[in-house]
Amino acid sequence: MEVTLQLQRPVSGSRSVFHERGFFKIKPFTGSFSNVRTTQSLQFVSWCTEHPTSGFSHRISATSDFSRRRQRKVSTPSPKDSAAKQFTPKTPKTPVRTNTPKRNQKKNEEREGSSMPTLSEYGGPTKKTPETKISFEEKPEGELSGDNIIGEAYVDETEIENEEIPQISKSLAVAKSSQLVENGSAGRVDEHVAVLQKKETTSETDSKNVKDESALERNIADDDVARSEKKETTSKTNIENVKDESSLERKELNPNKSNGIVNDEIVQTDIKASEDASLKLKLEIEAKLKLEMEAKLKLEMETKLRKQEIERLAEVNFLTKNKMFVYPQVVKPDQDIELFLNRSLSTLSNEPDVLVMGAFNDWRWKSFTVRLNKTHLKGDWWSCHLHVPKEAYKIDFVFFNGQNVYDNNDMKDFCITVEGGMDVFAFEDFLLEEKRWEQEKLAKEQAERERQEEERRRIEAEKAASEADRAQAKMETEKKREMLQQLMKMAAKSVDNVWYIEPNEFKGEDLVRLYYNKSSGPLAHAKELWIHGGHDNWKDGLSIIGKLDMAERTDGDWWYAEVVVPDRAFVLDWVFADGPPQKATVYDNNHRQDFHAIVPQSIPEELYWVEEEHKTYRKLQEERRLREEAIRAKAEKTARMKAETKEKTLKRFLLSQKHIVYTEPLDVQAGTTATVFYNPANTVLNGKSEVWFRCSFNRWTHRLGPLPPQKMLPADNGSLVKTTVKVPLDAYMLDFVFSEKEDGGIFDNKYGMDYHIPVFGGVAKEPPMHIVHVAVEMAPIAKVGGLGDVVISLSRAIQDLNHNVDIILPKYDCLNLSNVKDFRYYRGYHWGGTEIKVWSGKVEGISVYFLEPQNGFFSTGCIYGCRNDGERFGFFCHAALEFLLQGGFHPDIIHCHDWSSAPVAWLFKDHYMHYGLSKARVVFTIHNLEFGVDNIGKAMAYSDKATTVSNTYSKEVAGNAVIAPYLHKFHGIINGIDQDIWDPYNDKFIPISYTSENVVEGKRAAKEALQRRLGLKTSDLPLVGIITRLTHQKGIHLIKHAIWRTLERNGQVVLLGSAPDPRIQNDFVNLANQLHSAHGDRARLCLTYDEPLSHMIYAGADFVLVPSIFEPCGLTQLVAMRYGSIPVVRKTGGLYDTVFDVDHDKERAEAQGLEPNGFSFDGADSAGVDYALNRAISAWYDTRDWFDSLCKRVMEQDWSWNRPALDYMELYHAAQKLK
């Protein structure tokens, strides 16, 4: 629909004033006002009422489609020879002056007329989807000033708040009113309307025009016709669309038609509301205009000043021969800057291309390469724009020609300091945070890859297992089928005068009577008859049970039972008996063949076996699923328990020196502040007036270096002093010592080891060390004693701490290679006049190199026992060092053990330390001082650090002549046990798995199994286990006494061991014969080596006796506690370091972060043994609940290699510090 409203206004007596403050540029509107209806439609009318035009006639042309209510975009038609006029953000329309000559004005009117036809020009039917169009036309009725400017605009309500500033002032109100003519529709303004200074009274004609226009506006708004969807195509098409709507428009606008006449009072109210809204909007827009104009002027001024300042800087720098400057001169973070280069003063003066290449923060952050462009400045100045990131504190760069010609400021590079941002330390922290984020991201990606790989393996394994289950199901089904077919050949429908079934035709689930002639077999005199039956060769076991009743037949002693035939059965199987199951004594089983009857109407055989195979397959699948779930659950629980144990051990490690130093929090986190507490009363600084704290990080290698000394302040409790430390994000270790003065004096450096506290959660990880063990024993492939256990177990524990470990071992001809994975020839080399072949492989995850000299030294069928053992092992030590040298190895630590590999220490220092293996340090461990004292003494002199296998044993041998001179580098570190080998939760040699949670049940089952195996009385008695080599060192006289004492206390004794000395072995054979004859139900001596039996004794015994005269370390008591058995030991060596008496060692245990765990004695006589053994057995008898809790407690203590590995790593690092 289209209407044309002619708004005629007489020229005002006063001259119209046109303000020229600026132009408005109003963007097209494609949205809608959801809540604006009649009031909005009257805004244009109210504006006309308030500001009557002087000498202008306004015509409003509008079209609308009332058949559609969805608002559409506005499309303004234009003639074929002219482009559509429309505002763009930065290209305002060319203004047209109002004093255009009449012929031009006429042309304009004709052009506009072709664009917007009037109502009288339309004819024909209304189109179904016309476009909405609004236009304004102005007809001058008098002369206007040449200064008055008329502009054009498209109005877009959705972007009204983002209007840019054109060059028209008050005429925006007209554009805004035209915008609000429809509810959200956009119009086109083709004339300028002057904003009048005074409001004139409207005439009667005006009122009528207003009413007509209000009706038009209200109808259009009510029908929500807002915009058209498609662009204008041709002027002709648009005009036709508008014409099609004209008849509908005329009907809607006719006040005499069905729409009725608008009430004057309502119109006036709407006009007033429109006037208020228009005035408010006008004020808001004027305020916004003012701010935007001020901002624009400010921007122009700044641009001008910037240009002037750059010109000034260019002139100054040119005159001072300075070839580079930057604007602004003070560079700040997160800022755009312009970099200038005077090419004529540069080495690039003859180059056509100039580029800058650089980065930020000492070339460490966000590199860039940018091309420079020639500027307008006086001189040969080139420039480019750069953005300074917020993390920058310096810009580093050079200029170049894009190829190989550079200006790098005389090899010093150019640099610009960035003010007010990060400093170098803050940037380091920022980089560390970035690194942490990247590590977390990589860890997540790696975890996802591992998950996907695990899922892939699981699917493949599932597929393989499923195929195996199908194959097994098929095989089992075929086997069943063959057996059943053989059975069916033997089956019958009845046997004359013995049995028959009625009815003789039956099928599965039928109720039948099975008749039996009692007098036909061994049950002729039975008082009762019972049937015990099943089907298909007893497939489901005993499934038919019933008592027989006497039949009415008179031709024999017939009895019958009513039986439900099992579903899907082919054959019925049964026997007759004189009673129900478990109570019958006499059977008729058809001469051991059982009775079998064919089921005549069974299901088709082929269908049955197909279903049977599928059923078997499903059964196998379910069994496998349950089995795998149990294995997986057990593995997860094992891993969880190991992790928990490791965490507890680390905590105990941190608290082990709490009497001297500790931190709060105990777990120091990177990027936080920690407080260090120190008790000088327990150190060499006792009584000093001051204590100074000196620290660094990462084993004294941190980028920050040693921090300045800090004076420690008194703490709140006792003699403690404290200080705080800011831990950087890239720290993994906090290192410190204490001194009496700021500049030194007396130091407490933990006897040369320094104090070290691990730091958690940092972005940096401790770099791995490379440790090489040179040894002649190694479990489980070349084990003689405890040395072999230590070599493999310590290596695994160190490798679990993310370090690299290798072992070099002789290739004995008696090696147990079944425990070596990936065994292969590695390489060969010559040394000492002989060829040496090297083999490699993996033993329990550790890389092992086997040296095989071709001189036959290790082809003797034994490890020890040759007359030339010293020569053999000396050659091996030299060959091992030669292998490291020729193989290009650069270990950090070479660890040799006992007298047999002691020569490594001096051979290294004399022949290899300065010839390619200078990085390495030598650590030597004494396992037993009884053998090879000369070699041990020489190794003590040459090694960098030396250890023995327990702290107490190190003190016991400190007076030895080969040890005493080297106490400053001699340390005691307790051995551990392999918690994978000795694990009651996964031990295949004991009847049931157990942990500390069910230790009582587990040990009870193990005791009963042990008693049955050894033929002891199965009774709940205190059981003492003894597992040992029978030598004088092990206290064999105390062992004999303990056996008799246990029997006197009504206990049981089991001994497992053998003696290398035949005389001792015979002595114990005689004792065994005596005990077995007199106390065979309570004593058993097994004088041999039996690995499975040792596991059973550890699990089944209540106590394990270790009465050694001396014991460097001892593993027996540690394994006993792992299995919940209580150790009874003599106080010596490692036994004293690991067993804390429940009555006497509470404080000593607490100092180690432990609880008492056993019984001990001091002397080496029978009275000492009695004292400990009597208390132990009495506790078992008298306080059983307490004793059970003690078993649980010792199981939860960690005697693995977790703690010793940490101690050895401290020792390795201390050795590395030595020059």
From TrEMBL:
Residues 56-65, 88-102 have a biased composition (Polar residues). CDD domains: GT5_Glycogen_synthase_DULL1-like. It comes from Xanthoceras sorbifolium. PANTHER family: PTHR46083, STARCH SYNTHASE 3, CHLOROPLASTIC_AMYLOPLASTIC. This is starch synthase. Residues 56-148, 195-256, 446-474 are annotated as: Disordered. Its EC number is 2.4.1.21. HAMAP family: Glycogen_synth (MF_00484). It comes from the Eukaryota. It catalyses: [(1->4)-alpha-D-glucosyl](n) + ADP-alpha-D-glucose = [(1->4)-alpha-D-glucosyl](n+1) + ADP + H(+). Pathway: Glycan biosynthesis; starch biosynthesis. Keywords: Glycosyltransferase, Starch biosynthesis, Transferase, Transit peptide. The keyword 4Fe-4S does not apply. Gene3D superfamilies: Glycogen Phosphorylase B (3.40.50.2000), Immunoglobulins (2.60.40.10). It is an enzyme of class 2 (transferase). Residues 334-419, 509-600, 671-760 form the Carbohydrate binding module family domain. SMART domains: CBM_25 (SM01066). Residues 128-142, 195-234, 241-254 have a biased composition (Basic and acidic residues). InterPro entries: CBM25, GS/SS, Ig-like_fold, Starch_synth_cat_dom.
